[in-house]
Amino acid sequence: MSENVLELSNIVKRFPGILANDHVNLTLKKGEVHALLGENGAGKSTLMNIIYGIYKADEGEIYVNGQRANITSPHKAIEYGIGMIQQHFSLVPSFSVAENVALGLKEFHLFPRIDVIKKRLRELSKKFGLDVKPESRIWQLSAGEQQRVEILKLLYMNSQIMILDEPTAILTPQEAEGLFKTIKEMVKYGASVIFISHKLKEVLEISDRITVMRHGKVVDTLLREEADEKILARKMVGRDVVLRVEKSPPKTGDLKLSVKNLYSRSDKGPFAINGLSLEVRKGEILGIAGVAGNGQRELAESIYGLRDYTGEIEIDGTMLKPLDVHSRINHGVAYVPQDRKGVALCGNLPLYYNLFLKIFTSKQGDFNPYLFNPISLKKPAEALVKEYDVATSSLDLSVKYLSGGNMQKIVLARELTLNPELIIAVHPTRGLDVGAMESVYKILIKARENGAAVLLIAGDLEEIFTLSDRVAVLYEGRIVGYSEPDEEHLEEIGLMMAGIKKERVG
Ligand SMILES: Nc1ncnc2c1ncn2[C@@H]1O[C@H](COP(=O)(O)OP(=O)(O)OP(=O)(O)O)[C@@H](O)[C@H]1O
Ligand SMILES: [Mg+2]
Predict the structure, then answer these.
(1) Predicted confidence band at 435 (pLDDT cuts at 50, 70, 90)?
(2) Could you check whether 4-237 and 255-497 share the same CATH topology?
(3) d(CA 75, ligand 1 centre) in Å
(4) How far is the C-alpha of 233 from the C-alpha of 212, rounded, in Å?
């Protein structure tokens, strides 16, 4: 069966100073999972936004089920049976799941029948294995749960063409497996899926065909059988990529961070950190392994002074107070948070401001206008953009217009260049292409070699193994054990992550 449900013909999209889509041709067959791969800034999200009616193509045509389609808005796209989950979600945090679905309905209802929506949502949740309650408020849900809400919205609207822009970037490996099951179910019911990811393994697992983009152009479309990780990486970045970086044995020094008996609550109310203790020395990378939702976010935020806590957090032997970010910054702490768009960046500010947000304040944290000089900032900004290979048309571009991976590069550039002494990195390579991932690994290892202490919180065990000198396992807000960072200890770590085995201390 090779019926094309969607066909893109010679799509061109220009932004000031950049050709984001350069005569792109792409077909999507009925019942197919078609993966879209490409470097950060290659033009994937732009292309998807055109299909979904958020952007208008400058040139080219779109055909849906063989008919020329004129998609001028997401509303129109939905009428054509197209649904999209964007790289950054678009749910209303204070509304319930059902209310969010009501907002996206094709017909406008002044008083939508919430009970009817809830009932149908329960049916869909069951049928597609999407565990989420229609009554829950969005702000209380984990990222994985929010994504299920987005998928439910598409199913509710009966989308036949589903665009998933980096859906697995925010998922745990277990959640990603769950999503793949759901995708397979959706395809069984006749949907066709465009799936964007930087994780080559996943792409090879889930897709029927794979299209690789570079610099706005389609490089190639392959059948899954024709592809492997090496071939794909090479097509994406134009060179071989090594994700196993060399590192020398750690030269650990003095204690940099000491956390004792820490308690901290999650936004939902209960304690997410339950009497946690850990230590990180200068010159070492401590990897925190754990299933998402076991306190990762609360741990990082407490240490950085963004979340209230009881217990002791000491840096360089100095006891720090809760909710005091500036003393952390003064101690050379860098923070790469999990939510780049919501926490780390000011979307409306130009890219180069975002690179220096941390130096506009005095030691006490007051805004200091003398430190703020746009002209003198441009030169170092330019150097950072070059060093981190940020794809942008201008330093003045509002950072919200950067591609997802390039936003992440801005955060990393800001945090990692001020010679940090303690780096709290939460999912540092989330959304980065394999080439960029390789350079972030090198940067973190270099920081460690220069004597920085690194607390690495990541969902991907492979990443933890590649970078860490020791692994601590976080379970229900406590460190339940330590292990060596290698594949041989995978089972031991897995059991601790599941809360089954409490093991060695050290
Ligand atoms: N509204 C906009 N204004 C200006 N430039 C834009 C806008 N939207 C996208 N761009 C630029 O277009 C290029 C392609 O971005 P796009 O988001 O499509 O990349 P991507 O392939 O999705 O990358 P990633 O893997 O990092 O998500 C980037 O250089 C980006 O900065
Ligand atoms: Mg993107």
Answers:
(1) confident
(2) yes
(3) 22
(4) 9
